[in-house]
C-alpha cells in the first residue's frame, strides 16, 4: 500500500486528503492510518469480526467420551450430540477453526489412536471480544 492508498482509506469518512506531504517516512503514515482506523473509524462502524466454525464428528471408545467432550468445550466448542453404540461413542460438535490446528494429534493421544475424526465447514459466527482483540494486534 502506498501513501496515496493510505489516505484514500479516509475518503469514505469525509476526510479531505492532505496535499504536498513530504515523503520522509511512508511507514509512519501507514501506522498513522492504521491507528486512526482501529481507534476512531472502526469502533463507530458497528462491524463484527467473523470466524469460521467447523462441524466435527469424532468416533472414540466409550471410555473416552467425557475426556473428549471436556476437551472440545475447552476449545470453545459446543457439543451438540453424543451417541453411544456398544463400546463406541460418536460425538458431534461445532468448534472454531482457529482452535482445531493440531486437534487431530490431540484427540489421537487421548484414546491412544483408536479414533476417527471428520470435519466439515459449518459457517461463520461472530468472534468473541477476546478473539477479536487478539486478531487485531
Short précis:
The chain has helices at residues 3-8, 26-45, 65-74, 103-109, 129-135; strands at residues 50-61, 78-85, 88-96, 116-126. The chain is α+β, with helices and mostly antiparallel strands and 137 residues long.
Model description:
This protein has 137 residues and is α+β, with helices and mostly antiparallel strands. The protein is built from 5 helices and 4 strands. It has helices spanning 3-8, 26-45, 65-74, 103-109, 129-135, and strands at 50-61, 78-85, 88-96, 116-126. A 4-stranded antiparallel beta sheet has the order 2-3-1-4, covered by helices on one side. β2 (78-85) and β3 form a beta hairpin. It is elongated, with a radius of gyration of 23 Å. The chain starts with a helix and ends with a helix. The mean pLDDT is 79.
Amino acid at each position: 500500500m502506498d501513501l496515496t492508498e493510505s489516505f484514500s482509506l479516509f475518503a469514505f469518512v469525509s476526510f479531505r486528503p492532505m496535499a504536498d506531504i513530504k515523503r520522509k517516512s511512508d511507514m509512519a503514515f501507514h501506522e498513522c492510518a492504521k491507528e486512526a482506523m482501529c481507534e476512531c473509524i472502526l469502533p463507530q462502524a458497528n462491524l463484527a469480526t467473523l470466524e469460521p466454525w467447523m462441524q466435527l464428528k469424532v468416533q472414540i471408545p466409550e471410555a473416552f467420551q467425557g475426556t473428549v467432550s471436556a476437551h472440545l468445550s475447552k476449545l470453545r466448542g459446543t457439543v451438540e450430540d453424543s451417541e453411544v453404540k456398544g463400546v463406541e461413542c460418536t460425538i458431534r460438535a461445532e468448534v472454531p477453526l482457529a482452535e482445531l490446528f493440531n486437534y487431530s494429534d490431540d484427540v489421537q493421544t487421548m484414546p491412544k489412536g483408536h479414533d476417527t475424526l471428520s470435519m466439515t465447514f459449518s459457517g461463520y459466527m461472530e468472534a468473541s471480544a477476546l478473539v477479536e482483540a487478539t486478531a487485531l494486534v
